[in-house]
Structure formats: C-alpha cells, structure tokens
From TrEMBL:
Keywords: Membrane, Transmembrane, Transmembrane helix
Domain of life: Bacteria
Organism whose genome encodes this protein: Nocardioides marmoriginsengisoli
Protein name: Succinate dehydrogenase
TM spans (from-to): 30-50, 86-104, 151-171, 177-196, 237-256
Length: 266
C-alpha cells in the first residue's frame, strides 16, 4: 500500500513538477469519461436506494426482483423461497440483503478507479492534476472499507447462487413450464452477474493465489488461467451487470404494479 501521507513538497504541488499554470495541457475531452461515470453511477445509486426503501412491487409471480432476493424479511406471499427468518425486521426486506451485492460492487477494484476519478477527482484523468494536497490511501473512512472487498466477494458468490435459483424458479408454473420475457431478462442478468463475480481480482487470487508451483496444482492452474482471461474483461462485465440488474428490477416493478403485461413465449 502506498504511503499514508505524502511528504511536504511532493506530488502535484511539488518542486519536481513542471511549473505549468494550467491544470492540464490535454486538448481532448478528458472530462467526458469521469463525468459519464459520475452521472450513470449516481443514477444507479438513486434508483437502487428508491427501490430498496420502497418495499413494494418487487414480486410478480414467478419473478422476484434481484434487489429483494432472497426475500428474508416480511415479504409478500410466494416471494420467500428460503423462509422469513427476519420477518420482525421493521424496514424494507431489501435492506437485509442489498448490503452484500452493493458492498461487493462499491469496493470492486475496477470501480475504485472509476469513482476515484469521478467522485474523488483523484485524479480525474491521466495528466490532469488533482485538487488534493495529500494522499491518505485506504487507511481512513470511507475508503478504508475497500479493504473488505474479498469478504464481500464470498457473499457475492452466495448471492449469485440465489439469483440462479430464481431463474430456475422463473421457468416453473403451477400448470407446467413457463418461458416469458421476464425469464429471459433474469437469465441474462444472472449470466452477467456471474461473469462480473468470477472475473473479479479476488476470485483470481482465491483460485490461484499463494501457489509456489502451478505444475503441482494443474486443476487450480487451469481455473486460474480461465479466471485470468475473464479478468481482462472485468470492467465491461461490471457495467453490463450494473445495467442488467437495474433492468431486471424495473421489469418486475412494472409487472407488479400493472403498468405492463407479461410477454410469454410458451
């Protein structure tokens, strides 16, 4: 980890830096990337917060919103496939489970780069000076919570299995099989969720880390190679899954409140 405090006279304000009055000499639209990240990520946070506290319109049989899965609180009939051990919880049932997938996403190594640039402006872009005079790293609140990422990854694995179970349930119905647009949306979402989860740097370390000789662990080496290939696309999977989980929740919401009707294939 980098030094917690930058020595006096170093960094972007140090004497070793070129005496340039302008913040940057870049002529391109370098601000587009951090601005886009700020707008999209902020919109997702606002939407997810609203849906989490709404505690309504999250179940349209056989579909359960991924924001409320597994529904362990005081949930509507039919939505609790794993019981209601937190039925006494006075607030929205989504608040019981959302802390884990959101914690995993907020502490993600890729997202750190994104929100450091978009929210902390540290720095906002390459070759663009940041406004901060010192660097404290991830040793203080709130950034110290990023060090919990590996533990959130373990929880994300469990959530991935639960969402996969929801997809299986979405194919079933009392009178036989069922395939609707919601089934396909939940399926696409869980695929992106798994790709995002398994391409994580923590997954790569858990699979092949701490090994001195790959030749003595051929199975783990093969898995590590596969995860490493996924890891190269981790940023894309992060954004794909962000949109897919919001779309899945929105579809269930619109079904549950009667705004739209289910499109069924058989």
């Amino acid at each position: 980890m980098a030094s917690t405090k930058a020595p006096a006279g170093t960094g972007v304000h140090g004497p070793g830096r070129a005496a340039i009055g302008a913040r940057t000499l870049r002529q391109d639209r370098w601000w587009l990337a951090p601005l886009s990240t700020f707008v999209v990520f902020s919109a997702f946070i606002v939407y997810a917060t609203w849906r989490a506290f709404a505690n309504a319109n999250y179940y349209a049989e056989p579909y359960l919103s991924p924001f409320y899965s597994p529904c362990l609180g005081d949930c509507v009939k039919g939505s609790s496939d794993f019981g209601q051990p937190f039925g006494w919880f006075p607030l929205s049932a989504a608040l019981i489970i959302l802390i884990f997938p959101l914690g995993f996403r907020m502490t993600c190594y890729y997202y750190r780069k994104s929100y450091y640039r978009a929210f902390w402006l540290s720095p906002p872009a390459c070759a663009v000076a940041e406004p901060h005079t010192k660097y404290t790293g991830e040793t203080r609140l709130p950034l110290i919570l990023n060090n919990l990422h590996r533990y959130f990854w373990y929880a994300a694995i469990v959530v991935g299995f639960v969402l996969s179970f929801d997809v299986v349930i979405s194919f079933k119905e009392a009178d036989g099989g069922h395939v609707g647009l919601g089934t396909l949306i939940l399926l696409v979402n869980v695929v992106f969720i798994w790709l995002y989860t398994l391409s994580c740097h923590s997954c790569r370390h858990a699979v092949g880390g701490r090994l001195r000789h790959f030749s003595k662990h051929p199975v783990r080496y093969k898995a590590w190679t596969w995860v490493s290939k996924l890891n190269a696309h981790h940023a894309k999977f992060a954004w794909y899954s962000l949109f897919s989980v919001a779309i899945a929740d929105l579809y269930v919401y619109l079904l549950a409140n009667g705004t739209i009707s289910e499109t069924r294939f058989f």
